[in-house]
Fold each of these.
Amino acid sequence: MTPNKLPIPDVSRETFEKLEQFSALVEKWNPHINLVSKSTIPDIWNRHVVDSAQLFQFANYAPKTWLDIGSGGGFPGIVMAVIALEKSPVTKFTLIESDQRKSTFLRTAARELGLQIEILAERVEDVPPQNADVVTARALAALSELFPYLQRHLADGGCAILPKGKTYQDEIKAARQDWRFEIKSHPSMTDQQAQILIVKDIHRD
């Protein structure tokens, strides 16, 4: 049985429909590329679309540049770019995905959804510093592994928005062994054990 769809607060009907269109596109491509875990497809709206959409509220007001690393199937990068069409049309999006097949999907999704975004099919450590106001990464790596990328690509005063699961406190503790940073956490609306981490001012000890 398909779970009931969670709402996405404060978006227009047009934005909602674009997100539904994207969800259907992921379902269509997933058997060929494995964009998301097959077991999550019956609940793709809640597990991936809404789980990604909730991140937008934590962004800086009208950020000029937004970088999504390890974009995979477009969660949260494509979802953020769709919402930004309505909420922050000045924001320029760049998505980094080293897997060539997934980056091809991301370009297809961007074209079909009318998104003017840049897709870089490279390893994140090989991309020149992006000086981004916001960086997102979902289900990519532990904080200790993410921080070198965040330090490289965040602008001064920028923030990283990172959804994390139930081990988030262990990740924070491990990261503090080598890094100094500001961090705030907010409960996830899709998973009672998860948190959304907002990280700023990242420096290696």
Amino acid sequence: MENELSKIEAGSPSKEKKPLKKQEYSEYLKNRFPIKEEFRERMEKLIGKADAEKFFEISYTKTPNSIRCNTLKISVKELKFRLEDYGWKLKQPFPKNPEIMTIQNELNPGELGKTKEHLLGYYYVQEISSMLPMLILKPEEGDIILDLCASPGSKTTQAAAMMNNRGTIIANEVSMGRIGILNSNLERCGVMNTIVTRKDGVALCNNLLKKSKIKFDKILVDAPCSGEGTLRKSPKTFLIWNKHMIKKIASIQKRLADAAIPLLRVNGEMIYSTCTLAPEENEAIVNYLLEKYDLQIESINLPLKFREGICDWEDTKMSSELKKCLRLYPQDNDTDGFFVAKIKKLSEEIKE
């Protein structure tokens, strides 16, 4: 959000103005990025009027700064010592994952990415919700992992650190521009167990299935989405949001998830996740997989306030198993919004 705020301030009449105070910042965004009435109605239907109001209110505020220590290059203790020497007030909210840190004090615009520790790859600037898929998937040394939509590399580098650079990750990205960003982050973070591929995700899965015998222990499909959960970082989403976009993206997500399942070994696990809240892009995709393949949804336990998945949406009734999916709303934990499902493959059976 620092980058977004910098752009907004740079576009203001005077570049010499001081950074906006929180309330001023919020009011500025509300005026520039109004809520579409259809979007408001959908959120009220999804979580109720009072909760929708809280959702939109926090969406016009900055997401707290959070980082992940890159344990491939430095210990958590040493990084914490270095950053506190800058005057940063750090909090480690998850005892079992001390590498996750939040910065409690205000930083200057751009400060988070300008330290020598960041340039050397000692830490990765990553919102807490973005860390969830790998915390749930739990990559281990020796695993063979597919990260189907990998750029910019936040989750790939996280997986490599959890695996101590052992095992193999195939990190795929279709965009050449985003491949460059992915490669840069992998290099900066000292990742050495990753093969980067550039291919449409569906085509890559189909090719691997037809031309190889590879089966993955774990797969991440962190699918491209409409971004309803990232309004705090990208308020322009208020302007581009529409139901047609949701329907179009859901079609892409379904094809990606559908293509990935055959590559998962029996008893292997796949995470399907998005940074949006639309049921069409989340539970509806997982429900489609449950109807086609022999799968089960695994329960997830993390120290955050989650809400269970949706089983009934716009006259469509879905499997009760979807309650095990997790929804993260910004107003519940002061994070971005997120959806995640942990899927276990029980057999090679195809029900259709």
Amino acid sequence: MKIDPDNPADLSAQIAAAIRDAIISGGLIVDERLPSEAELAEQFDVSRPTVREALKRLAAQSLIRTQRGATGGAFVNRLSFEAAQPQQITTSTLLLSMNAVSFETACEARYALERACAPLAAARRTPDHLATMRAEIHRQSQPGLTDEAFCASDVAFHRALVDGAGNPVLSYQLAGAVEAMQPLMNMITFTARDRARIIALHTDIADAVEAGDGATTLAALTALETETQDLAQSVFAARAARS
């Protein structure tokens, strides 16, 4: 592991990148203890505070963990897809909030990704996934449910569908799409949507998943996308008319 002292990039960032690359390449394996701060400082020819900052960066990315005591130190962490999902969600939320991503673009991306999961969910879903989908449909039909609670239930329903595909890579990639994009779409359409219509479409999806019918699941999800896009267009048209 080496760094370039003439590189204008922050030295701690370079050290963190060097250690991260060693973990990715297999030079450092899961549960392996990293050299001590003093050893790393000597190896990279930097101060211990610089090393300490690099280790903080790696810990923030869940790439290492620290333990106290005589047998303590910094160890390579086993990063799971589930543990990485919050970072994916945070990054997706920031990207959507900081960039001019249109509703149509976000909706297109979110449903294109979820359609990849639909046939797999119909074939692989567990009773727990289906039970979650049914429970959220029941929750959505409750009188007096707030818009915020309905939106949260909407997200939970789609997360169950995605997770039902039984593919951790897809679940990880779609965590940001569902958790970040779905609330954005709900925020635009909640004033115009017919809850009964959404519940009916969710029921169609759940019925198809329960029957193991991938084609019908895909068709029901596409119908939900069309409903979402149509709602958004009506909202935008109403806003334009008022302006």
